[in-house]
Here is the input.
Amino acid sequence: MAENDQDFLNSKEQTPREIVAELDKYIVGQTSAKRSVAVALRNRWRSRQLPEKIRDDVIPKNILMIGSTGVGKTEIARRLAKLVKAPFIKVEATKFTEVGYVGRDVESIIRDLVQMAVRMVREKKMEEVQDRAAELAKERIIDAFVPESREEKNPLMKLLEAVDGSDKKSDDQSDEEKKSKYPAGRAWVKKRLDAGELENEMIEISVEDTVKPTYGSNLGSMGDNLQDMIGGLMPKRTRKRRVTVEAARKILQQEEAEKLIDMEDVADIAVQLTERNGIVFLDEIDKIASKNSYGADVSREGVQRDILPIVEGSTVMTKYGPVKTDHILFIAAGAFSSAKPSDLIPELQGRFPIRVELESLKQADFEKILTEPQNALTKQYIELLKTEGLEIDFDESAIKRIAELAEHVNDQAEDIGARRLHTLLEKLLEEISFDAPDLEEKKISIDSEYVDQKLKDISKDKDLSQFIL
Here is the structure.
């Protein structure tokens, strides 16, 4: 395996402190949860530094996050995976309890995770061959302008002959003369391509038809394998497309890059990447927890027992080869408002030794969420309305008032955490967003008085606040 492939498989070597600092840029509070995932990630790196004889016995310590919706459980896991460039998949545990849910099983979690890894590795491999692919794409564009057979002349060839003064005498040319014109024509077109003079010219190119047959599309992994087998037996089809040179360059460069990469090598690396760095986020795990053993609860316990083997460590067959789940990190999450972690079957409880309770968000947290993260909500709305030529400014008093209302409505109605801010800001800026293209006043300052004016009904009417989801 190439050295750069090993670099790709090795996750970044951030210290726990560095990981928490990076998560702080996007997620407010929840220090305990951040520290737990940071340590779990660092332990993965530590285990790979161990002697081979004990390395395989050191398995990841899976994490169970407990907290109401909107407090940052999913965001922590998602940002963590993005930080270390690891394959990541989020799955709702309840999807496996749905009535009539057929065709896919719990092992599809791992198959989807491998598919994500294949996409990541493929994208990286294609980046490495872009320069070579660009050269090959250029050659194909030149071929479209100057085909080796000159029986049918395209408009640019006629232009070339007109420049050379050879249009009238073309029929009398010998084969030797035609052959000598061929490299000269290619050099002329190449020069103009490099100068960017032909970007808007229309050419006809042949591209591979990427539409796959849909046989067995409802059969899960077996259907995927069947499609690949049928696709491999059928000859590759091509079709003609008439596009600009600029569009052709992108299409052909992508096509040539795909030809340059070895998909078997990609699959091998993707399987290793999944086994070593994969992260699975099991959301709503509390919805399959039950201490009863009759009725619908039997189905929930059955889902727990189905999930158990892949969390414990097993081998899942995928179309890219067998995948061992022993060292995949599982992060489960749930509100546990009507159930307790102890309601999970004992075997599954034991596979999530690290338990972290996330705190409900308060006014001070909402204020930070509105202003501090790199993608803070107020910054998003400022940039959105800037596209209409509006300059929106959120006064400090407005931030405090919005945060106060968010805490108030969460206390009075359902606690949906930071998601409350989305609906409050939408309601607050509804009129401005609607009138933005027609407003003459391009500078608008939002203060606490403006917030009270637009959201006064929510703050006063408890019944109305329940409809503000």
Remarks:
- Residues 108-128 form the longest helix (21 residues).
- The first strand starts at residue 63 and ends at 66.
